[in-house]
Design goal:
The chain has 683 residues and is an alpha+beta fold. The chain has 20 helices and 23 strands.
């Protein structure tokens, strides 16, 4: 018998060698193989911590207090003295200091080993010591997973009721918030005896969501208010001081409030804080209290028709879901007024003009000369409109999908809209606006349309106030969503299929309309006189633009291009200025408006302010590096001018602020100039 064949034996696998590994960067220690150790060293977490430690090594601290109007100057001083500054943080709470992150370690060494003086203040830099624990806190938090869509089926009314039940503030949460008012009032009582904390906004109207903020107005005793006013003649300055003082008071109650931030220079100065017990963000204001009566008006309308609350809540949640509800979009109040105006326009109307509620003079309540009172006792006239919530929602989207916001002013007070030109010709406005007309005649800056906006919605009580500040890209986004939502609802009604309609409206996707801030066009009024000599016009335009760049903006420039162009059979003269801005002359200009000469020339006034700002803010400082570089192109047509401004290099954030400033000034400077120029040429 043949010997049995030997079976091949498996090759023994060499045991991977393990060793003890300690990572000081991540503060861990474990036993692992070489491949495991390599995976850790080249992993994202380890690399991120290395980067954070490297950034920390480029940070220095200097214990000094820098006023707001000198902070940009201080950053320029650091850049020109030590090298490029990547980040800078000014701490105003407790012991004041400035944290500076340089781009290179050489700049750090240079700062620590030198002694400098800024605005008569000694600068002693010290290296910031960052522990591993602090680095760990700085790690970028992982974004939460997107919330699952609500599973909503059945009739549309059932879906919308179920949605609102899920997103509105619960009674238990509302009860917790009640303690916020009493605790806030008790904190302020020591400083302002007999003060009252009055809530307003969504907490009063009943439109609050689970994460909605709380708005509070602090009403101070009139006698104490007179005492405070005697120490401060400017009411706006007084409101700013009250905000700063309240911020300091709340810092003493660390068990009740946290995340306390004062915003004293806003149009409505507020203190933002977090109420610890209810975990609710709160905005505290002292200015006039218009919000209280606005909230009461909305609540009155909601109580008049049960459909309104459902409609308002859904549209508000829909807008929030698509990111055009909030800062620099539509405020909740502005969106509510758009809905109220729509309900005044439909046939038959559901809501009456607000002026109809002010016929009975016994309800009059005046704040700063404006009547905020209304008859909130008598019931509204019963409407003949029996449309369902779905039909009203469809109508809202259809009403605003192509609405001409650019050329109309929406006025819920009279229940009508007016062409913008009507507010330039005050004599032709309705008698209902007599208070508005009288005020604007005294102060033209109070004109509702004096500020350049894309949307004009007049406040129903304070008629000089436009309650919107919506950028063009957000407005287009809003109208595109309205158009898509109208189409979705119309298709559902035609096919009689409503399943998942709510989800469809909340999750509809539209490509975001981006605002290309690197290339912005500014148009000026047409100059429709064909007899104007083109060469004289070109020379005059070049002179005034050069004055704006050199004297008002303090820019260095060179003319990069000066030629006649033809495009689409249109001939125009184009001049391109390649500019560098060395000084920040667009920050805190209001602080330097005193002691100006009595001139009516807008450009000369702006130049005086710039010179005063540089004399105070840039004393003994000569910036070596520009803030940014930009192209300033002037296209001179036969009937108008177009200015195009484009960032080339530098701080994009500062450039955006710079452009907003320039955009707000150019019309005021150039329109009178060109009017006078045409008169001179035609003389």
């Amino acid at each position: 018998m043949e010997a049995a064949k030997q079976q091949p034996q498996p090759t023994p696998v060499a045991k991977k060698e393990q060793r003890l590994f300690k990572c000081d960067v991540c503060n861990i220690q474990y036993t692992g193989t070489e491949s495991e150790i390599s995976s850790h060293i080249f992993g994202k977490k380890h690399k991120e911590r290395l980067r954070l430690l490297e950034d920390a090594s480029k940070q220095v601290l200097v214990h000094v207090s820098i006023p707001d109007h000198q902070r940009i100057v201080f950053k320029q001083f650091l850049t020109s003295t030590f090298g490029c500054v990547e980040k800078i943080y000014f701490n105003d709470l407790g012991r004041r200091f400035v944290s500076v992150t340089f781009k290179s370690l050489e700049s750090v060494t240079k700062a620590i080993n030198s002694r400098h003086i800024f605005d008569n203040k000694k600068l002693n830099f010290e290296k910031r010591n960052i522990t591993l624990r602090q680095v760990k806190k700085k790690e970028k938090k992982q974004r939460p997973l997107p919330q699952p869509r609500f599973i909503l089926t059945g009739a549309f009314e059932e879906q919308i009721r179920e949605l609102i039940k899920k997103v509105e503030r619960s009674p238990e949460k509302s009860q917790e918030i009640q303690s916020l008012y009493s605790e806030l009032q008790n904190c302020l009582m020591h400083e302002y005896p007999d003060c009252r904390v009055v809530p307003f906004g969504s907490v009063i109207t009943g439109l609050a969501f689970t994460d909605s903020d709380v708005d509070c107005f602090v009403s101070i005793n009139p006698i104490q208010m007179q005492i405070l006013m005697s120490k401060c003649d400017d009411i706006d300055l007084l409101h700013s001081r009250l905000v700063r003082n309240t911020k300091n008071i709340l810092h003493k109650y660390k068990t009740l409030f946290s995340h306390i931030v004062g915003i004293p220079r806003a149009s409505v100065p507020i203190v933002k804080c977090l109420h610890i017990k209810s975990q609710t963000n709160c905005d505290v204001s002292f200015k006039n209290g218009f919000g209280i009566y606005n909230s009461r008006l909305i609540f009155f309308f909601i109580a008049s028709d049960p459909r309104l609350k459902t409609l308002l809540q859904f549209i508000k949640y829909w807008a929030k879901n698509h990111d055009f509800l909030g800062y620099k979009t539509f405020s909740s109040y502005a969106l509510t007024m758009l809905i109220i105006y729509y309900l005044q326009q439909i046939s038959p109307p559901i809501l009456i003009p607000i002026k109809e509620l002010q016929k009975d003079k016994k309800f009059d309540i005046y704040i700063d000369g404006w009547n905020c009172g209304f008859d909130g006792i008598s019931a509204l006239p019963k409407t003949q409109n029996t449309s369902s919530v779905l039909t009203l929602l469809q109508g809202f989207y259809h009403f605003y999908e192509d609405y001409d916001f650019a050329n109309n002013v929406i006025c819920p007070y009279v229940g009508k809209s007016f062409p913008i030109e009507a507010f330039n010709n005050l004599e032709n406005l309705l008698p209902s606006f007599q208070t508005y007309v009288n005020l604007v005649k005294v102060d033209r800056s109070k004109n509702l349309i004096s500020a350049k906006r894309n949307v004009f919605v007049q406040d129903p009580f304070e008629h000089t106030r436009n309650i919107t500040n919506t950028p063009d890209n957000k407005l287009k986004f809003f109208k595109s969503h309205c158009k898509l939502a109208y189409t979705k609802i119309t298709n559902s009604i035609e096919n009689n299929t409503y399943d998942n309609l709510i989800n469809t409206l909340l999750n509809q996707q539209i490509a975001t309309v981006k605002n290309n801030s690197s290339n912005i066009l500014v148009k000026f009024p047409k100059m429709s006189n064909s007899d104007i000599d083109k060469s004289s016009l070109v020379n005059s335009v070049k002179i005034v633009v050069e004055n704006i760049l050199t004297e008002m903006l303090k820019c260095n420039f060179e003319i990069d291009n000066d030629e006649v162009c033809t495009e689409k059979n249109v001939t125009y003269h184009s001049v391109n200025f390649k500019c560098q801005t060395m000084y920040n002359v667009w920050f805190a200009r209001k602080l330097h408006t005193e002691n100006l000469s009595a001139t009516n020339n807008a450009l000369l006034k702006e130049i005086e302010i710039t010179n005063a700002l540089i004399d105070s803010g840039y004393k003994n400082i000569s910036p070596k590096n520009p803030l940014f570089s930009f192209n300033f192109t002037v296209n001179i047509f036969d009937d108008n001018l177009k200015f195009s401004i484009r960032l080339i290099d530098g701080d994009k954030r500062e450039y955006n602020i710079f452009f907003s400033f320039l955009n707000s000034r150019m019309s005021k400077i150039l329109n009178p100039f060109f009017s006078n120029l045409i008169k001179e040429i035609n003389a």
